Amino acid sequence: MRSCVSSFFLLVLFLLFSTIVYFTHAARFDIKNNCPYTVWAAATPGGGKKLNTYDVWAIDMKPGTNGRIWARTGCSFNEAGIGTCETGDCGGVLECEGSGGQPPNTLAEFSLDTANKDFFDISLVDGFNVPIDFSSTSAQCTRSIECVADINNECTAELKVKTGSVGCNNPCTVFQTDEYCCMSGPDNCKPTNFSRFFKTRCPDAYVYSYDDRRSSTFTCPTGTNYSVVFCPDIKQKGSVTRFNITNNCPFTVWAAIVPGGGWQLESGQTRSHDMSSDKEGRIWARTGCIFNSTGHGRCDSGDCDGLLECQVNGRAPNTLAEFNLRQNFFNISLVEGFNVPMEFSPTSEQCYQGIKCAADIDKQCPMELRDPGGCNNPCTVFNNDQFCCKSSNCESTSYSQFFKNLCPDAYTYPLDDDSTSTFSCPGRTNYKVVFCP
């Protein structure tokens, strides 16, 4: 009798321990619809649920689960849960099973408890149908990623969904070629103009099949809980910074912003760009550019791998407006040289500190730094430790002093970290960048 009782209590303890372990490491996903219309949330595993505006659906995922969450639009289901959706349809059922939905659909993807980490991403590999925010909600991890650009309205003609609900398809579904579908593996799978279109608008997102860079996949410790929000109201949260970029030069420039892309700016034109306020990056002008209809070409200064919509930093010389919105710092940098005069100023009432580099540096440039695109930096020209600061021994030089004398506000060598080089404004400040102020 004692052995039976002991076995019973051991079984109870085992089940209790297993339950504790499960709930310790399971992840809760709160899925919210902030869109001004009904969506039908889908989760595999997990099923599906109709969500009116502001409705929330909470689901728990077991450790070791790999899955995805997305919104379906334009759906109609009968009482048995059978029907159709215009985007994201999963076999005509309300409660989805299997691997995913019919493109186009914006995806929140996750892999839980892999080597004591959760991996998660936002994917546009299947296209885009609604904006999305994918964030951790546990104190142990504060990572948040989003894709909130107006992609449906900006979608290229080839990818635009022409019937039913608005959506922007993926090039694999549209063209069915190896270039876009990556059927022959990662060695032959590279970014394309279409993947760059998505990446410039949603820098956090995974945009083609082997887009395995650090800016595409994110991690939190195992046991983290998450929220997925369709149509996050980022303006209401105050998490958007607006940059007004103006070309006052008497010639055309090609503005570049990373993250964000690039575009042509004729003399006198202004273009606005909204950016999530947890980003850091840089803005610059490119000159002497020629691009074809696919956005490939070259620039005399500031060229970014021959692309109109920049994915990487530009080639020196280029005057830079640099910012860290998370820490509220901004500066003008001549560390990579000078190509056009620049002003970088706040436009919000709570901050008045503007900075400028308006000197005619090109005409005064030392002969050894002169470049067809402007006035180059000494590191690019001489490539030694004195100017490139590859070690910790980094001091001002005659060249950095030349730039500093002409542009006292500017950051002029890699460790030029004094109070005359870096400036700050409170959070939620908007800015303007003016070329040739």
Automatic annotation (TrEMBL):
InterPro entries: Osmotin/thaumatin-like_sf, Thaumatin, Thaumatin_CS. It is found in: Secreted. Pfam families: Thaumatin (PF00314). The keyword rRNA-binding does not apply. The keyword Secreted applies. Keywords: Disulfide bond, Secreted, Signal. GO terms for cellular component: extracellular region. Residues 1-26 form the signal peptide. It comes from the Eukaryota. PANTHER family: OS03G0233200 PROTEIN. Belongs to the thaumatin family. This is Thaumatin-like protein. The lineage of its organism: Eukaryota, Viridiplantae, Streptophyta, Embryophyta, Tracheophyta. The gene is LOC115716715.
